[in-house]
Amino acid sequence: KEDIEVTLLPAGHCPGSVMFLFEGENGIVLYTGDFRLAKGEAARMELLHSGTRVKDIQSVYLDTTFCDPKFYHIPSREECLNGILELVRSWTSLTRYHVVWLNCKAAYGYEYLFINLSEELGIKVHVNKLDMFRNMPEILYHVTTDRHTQIHACRHPRDDDCFRGNRLPCGMTCQNGTPLHIISIKPSTMWFGERIK
Q1: What is the DSSP track for 94-154?
Q2: Which of 38, 75, 97, 168 is the most exposed place for a label (fewest CB within 10 A)?
Q3: What integer pLDDT is reported at residue 78 of this predicted model?
Q4: Whole-angstrom Cα distance, residue 186 to residue 16?
Q5: Which residues are in the DNA repair metallo-beta-lactamase domain (predicted)?
Q6: Model pTM?
Q7: How many angstroms separate the CA atoms of 97 and 25, rounded?
Q8: Which CATH number among 3.40.50.12650, 3.90.190.20, 3.90.226.10, 3.10.20.30 corresponds to the domain 77-185?
């Protein structure tokens, strides 16, 4: 028998995501799962340190989608946000009928984007339901179920089919009889490794 201490560390991936730090007689192991940490964030994790130095971790298990050479450089979260902000600001400022659809493939993990777009542009993000955000009160002010907004993150089982018909997944095609001009942004790291070449 061996006593093992297990510490959960924030993974920075989606709300509630964690990395596991296992400590026992045979050493220390870090299991990451999917994670997203910017430079310097690990240095601020007190539980990774013993006194003034980093704990002596013998093994790190990177169980992550992006453990592949083609993803050696992924832009920082801030770089991505600034690019999206510039695009969304320039599009939505044309007319109130210029709308952005954030084609989010997962239910969680985009909260940082929604909050920052809403704060910077003063536009709430349309989502299908608020239920999944009930335990994240910091985002509730930034999302809405009101379809009459210029930023949408609503979802439909066949999102791409909807978009091709110049229709948002929530069914919106126009406001006050005026057709919407829709652009789609797919906030995903998946395509980045393919296109960096």
Answers
A1: T-TTEEEEE--SSSSS-HHHHHHHHHHH--PEE-S-SGGGTT-HHHHTTEES-S-SSEE--
A2: 38
A3: 87
A4: 23
A5: 138-192
A6: 0.74
A7: 63
A8: 3.40.50.12650
